[in-house]
Amino acid sequence: MADVWRVKTVDGAQVRLRSGRIGIVNVDVTAPVSGGELAIDESNVTFSLRLQLDQLRTGNFLMQAAARTLVSKYDAHVLSYVGQGEPTDVAYSVVGTAVGGTVEVLLTLEITPIGGDVPLSEIDVTGNASVGTVHLPLPGMGTVDDFSFDVEARLALELG
Fold first, then answer.
1. Which domains are delineated in the chain?
2. Which residue has the higher pLDDT, 68 or 55?
3. Which letter does DSSP use for residue 53 in this model?
4. I need a labelling partner for 86 at 20 to 30 A (CA). Which of 2, 50, 138, 139 fits?
């Protein structure tokens, strides 16, 4: 029987997605978490996460407009991820697909328990992905041939 930990979606649970430098800018957005869970048994770890991309935030208004245009263009209002891996004693590595509208991205995430007395009460999630060619709707930006981004999150969990 698996232990199932649910992601607490209150108090600003969010995931940060950050690209490397593209021309003169970096894409740096945060998206609120609307659900997710971490299920662990003797032989398998399954991590799911749901992000509200239609509510993402950026640091400047031009990138905000461009990001929202991309979300609408690809009908990616909600991004759902499910990854699986094997349990270990320290951290979990899960591989899965993030799907949002017409976009699918293979994504490997590292999940590290960082809670104090109850290690799985809080987790650190990191990873990166490459989505290939992307057209950024910003003047002077155009097409980026190898768009990649890092994923970062610190999420509170509760045993469900």
1. 3-159 (2.40.128.110)
2. 55
3. G
4. 50
Question: 86-122: string of b/e by CB count within 10 Å (b at 16+)?
Answer: eeeeeebbbebebebeebebebebbbebeeeeeebbb
Residue of 70 and 146 predicted with greater confidence? 70
Please give the span between the terminal C-alpha atoms of the chain, in angstroms, as a whole number: 13
DSSP structural state of residue 8: P
What does the block give as tokens for 84? 């699986």
pLDDT in tens, 82-121: 999 999 888 999 999 999 888 888 999 999 999 999 999 9
- Cβ atoms of 57 and 30 within 8 Å: the answer is yes
Distance of alpha carbon 115 from alpha carbon 104, whole angstroms: 31
Provide the β-strand partners of residue 111. 92, 125
CA distances from 11 to 33, 57, 95, 129, 147 (A): 10, 16, 27, 27, 31
Tokens 């108090």 found at: 11
Nearest residue to 2 (alpha-carbon basis) of 42, 47, 49: 42
Q: Which of 10, 44, 16, 18 is nearest to 148 (CA)?
A: 18
For 140, the 3-state DSSP assignment is coil
